[in-house]
Amino acid sequence: MPETLDLTHVANPAVRDLLQLVQLDDFNRVQAQVEYLAGCSKPIQLTGYSATLNAATGEALHVFNTDDEPTGRLLVSCGNRRASRCATCSRVYSGDIFQLIRAGLSGGKEISETVRTHPRVFATLTAPSFGPVHNRPGGGSKRRACRCGDWHMKDDPALGMPLDPTTYDYAGAVLWNAHASALWARFTTYLRREIAAQLGFSQRALPEALRISFAKVAEYQKRGLVHYHAVIRFDGPDGHTTPPPPSATVGLLIDAVRKVASRVSLTIDGDAVGEREFVWGRQIDVREVSGIGNGAELTDEAVAAYVAKYATKGAEDSGTVDSPVFCTMCQGRGRRGGGDCLTCYGTGEGVRLRFLVVAQHMRQMVRTSFELGRLAEFDHLKLWKWAHMLGFRGHFSTKSRRYSTTLGALRDVRRAWRLAKARAHLGLSEDDTDTTLVTESAWAFLGVGYSPGEELLAAQVRHDRAWARKLRAEGGDHG
């Protein structure tokens, strides 16, 4: 056994930890675990074991135990969808969303390829105004000066900020985010009613002739309000395998989406804020998804890439924080055990809001979420829990059941592929799939993240993979 080096003189803790890892008997195994994660930022640490047994004889074909690992634990990917949390895992999630959306537009993944002949549109529904903000009116060569008199650059931090914060309707903005999902649900209900009326069907009879499938993703605007991008498609009565009736045209779908989006509303009433009616903003964009290439204006791949891009983003892209700010001891309520919470001193804040390193506008959105969340009439919204999301508490990406494949199905395929590779590595025959079975496993959560030395290895993995992606994007062969 090699002599252990004295590392007390190494001042940098990450370098010292890496040198300690290098001295382990099986450092290659440590490096292999980190490389397998492909640069995941916050891996999950597990301890435990799993055993692959012969179902007929009970013979152990393979046993994995973290006690045999050099570090005594197993690292697995965090699986976070947010690019701000983990670029590696979010890239996998984005790829799955891309495949899901594209399959619903051009077929594949057990979706009929004839679906590309069905009427399809890409719609963007925005939030209404809650007060004038700094912007770039017009855009392009016809861009005009902002109402403040300045000509803002694209990266100007003032964009999206209120012209007059004292008159901006912060309560309305937060409550809009909190009810955006409900407004979308009402929009889909009214859309079916509108299409049934235009085609001359009753609402009950419509599914026997036509079905409406959709997939959507939420995006935050710079002003901190969510809006939706959605793919909406006409199908026959049996879904993607059957065409819709000839009268169900793209023109009818575009007209119905515009009409419903311009008139659907959701009303709430409360003592603190009075009666509020929430509607979609005036900027409603509905365009046909016209093809898979060949000069089409809006292609299947372009739409799928656009949706996938925003599926990994969150409120942090509008300038706020990407993690909850409520006190976990009292769950943001400010009280615990019959008195004020001793952790947050009764504020409910896990992070002092006045110390958040964000623009004043975003801080006020977060603060308003806390203030409204303390009111009994909005207690069911749990706005303090979603204050870091500026009140939005819906799913970022959703789809109707018949639109396409599912994220679960895509992950099952990837899991099966990995299992096949593992079986091949262990020398297990592909023909023995019915005679082998994982019958025993037990795992315990240990922690999150790398050790300082492992983080250096992960940083190198991320650098190498980023460089490889750059070379692939450039299409060059640089050896």
Structural overview:
- The protein has 479 residues and is an alpha+beta fold.
- It has three domains: 13-80 and 406-474, no CATH class; 87-130 and 169-319 and 395-399, no CATH class; 321-389, no CATH class.
- The chain has nine helices and 13 strands.
- The protein has helices at 13-22, 27-36, 87-106, 170-199, 250-263, 300-311, 360-373, 407-425, 452-474; strands at 44-54, 60-65, 74-76, 120-125, 211-220, 226-235, 265-270, 274-279, 284-288, 335-336, 339-340, 397-399, 436-448.
- It is globular.
Q: What is shown here, in short?
A:
InterPro entries: RepSA (IPR046828). The chain has helices at residues 13-22, 27-36, 87-106, 170-199, 250-263, 300-311, 360-373, 407-425, 452-474; strands at 44-54, 60-65, 74-76, 120-125, 211-220, 226-235, 265-270, 274-279, 284-288, 335-336, 339-340, 397-399, 436-448.
For this entry, give a set of tags:
alpha+beta, 4-stranded antiparallel sheet, 13 strands, 17% strand, RepSA, 5-stranded antiparallel sheet, Replication initiation protein, 479 residues, globular, 3 domains
Question: What's the SSE blueprint?
Answer:
Elements: H1 13-22, H2 27-36, E1 44-54, E2 60-65, E3 74-76, H3 87-106, E4 120-125, H4 170-199, E5 211-220, E6 226-235, H5 250-263, E7 265-270, E8 274-279, E9 284-288, H6 300-311, E10 335-336, E11 339-340, H7 360-373, E12 397-399, H8 407-425, E13 436-448, H9 452-474
Antiparallel strand pairs: 1-2, 1-3, 1-13, 4-6, 4-9, 5-6, 5-12, 7-8, 10-11
Helix pairs in contact: 1-9, 2-9, 3-6, 4-5, 4-7
